[in-house]
Amino acid sequence: MIEIICNGEDDSNKGNMRGNADIRRPKNIKQIGDVSSNRKIYIEDYAFTYINSVAYQTPEDEQAGVLLGEVQKSDEEKCLFIKGVIRAKTPENETKQGIVFNEKIWEKIYAEIEKFFPDLEVVGWFAAMPGITQERFLYLKKLHMDNFSGGMKTMYLVNTCDKEENFYLYENGELKKQKGYVCFYERNYEMQEYMLERRERKPIESPEKDKVMKSIRSIIQEKEEMRQRRKNSVFLYGISSFMAVVVLVIGINLLNSYEKMKKFDTSLSNIALEISNISEKEKSIQTSDNSVSVNKISGDVYPTEAETESTESRTTQSQTEQSQTEKQAESAEMVKEADAAQTTYIVKKGDTIMSICKKYYGNTEKLNEIIAVNNIEDADKLYIGQEIKLP
Length: 391
Hints:
By secondary structure, the chain is α+β, with helices and mostly antiparallel strands. It has helices spanning 45-57, 103-116, 134-147, 189-198, 207-291, 305-340, 353-361, 367-373; strands at residues 2-5, 29-33, 39-44, 63-73, 78-87, 121-129, 154-159, 164-171, 174-177, 180-184, 343-346, 387-390.
């Protein structure tokens, strides 16, 4: 039985949520089977898809891997959330033994956990094989007890021959098959990056399951687009307000500069007028010399103290205004150079927004800022040669 639930739990689960405020439940989910037990298993869609791709890509082989996630508890129930998967690759010289977990395999698994899923812990494992005999199941039980002992450690078993997939939990000394589980949907960047690096392809799903998955994904995509549109509108409003303030400040500065230049021109005109008056006076004196005899007094002629102070004051004012104009020009040039120095990155094959963020900043703290700056509507879709601005 498959029941689709989006944006919250159905009415039958509302009672279970009482007293479980400390358990953070995903909103977009697909319930498979009966999940009324007080021990619930949630698995993220990318992790679930990756397991099935590994299992059915070579259905004749035995495959295994480690499940990563977290356990959340309350007074009434325990919930296991699976968000990541690491495939356990058996060395070629040990493939005849089938599924094994030895020291070398665990070293590789922990190295990949540290690289791709540093915030998650081991919560179980998966096994895929063509047909499961009683003897083979006992061997799987031994592997579980030796490597994944614990109350909420789970085993996800895929029978590639009969196409059966079931979760198991250890109860009362036995691996007990669970009646159902919940598949949830979110932007699992860590799992996407792991899948891209491993270049694993999704299996061909059955028509019925494919319709269900498409329906849920379309709903999620619509909500993501609405959320992105709201975010973009807020961002554009902020940009518009900022630009209006910038234009206002520039206008005020230009007006002040115009007034200062006007005063500067007036000062120059006054100086030129006074120089002209002095020249006319000198000419008048020379004319008088030709017609009237005067007594010449030896010595130098100096301007009066009032004239000197007036000229020095006007010269100082002119130099100050010219210095302010040069500073404003230098400030504008510095802003242009800062804008031109913004870092960009050209997308290459296999790049994701997360991998680019980690490459330049060493973490994913600026992931949402990169998405907003570049107006990326779908962070899962990049094309080779695309230019990404890095704030």
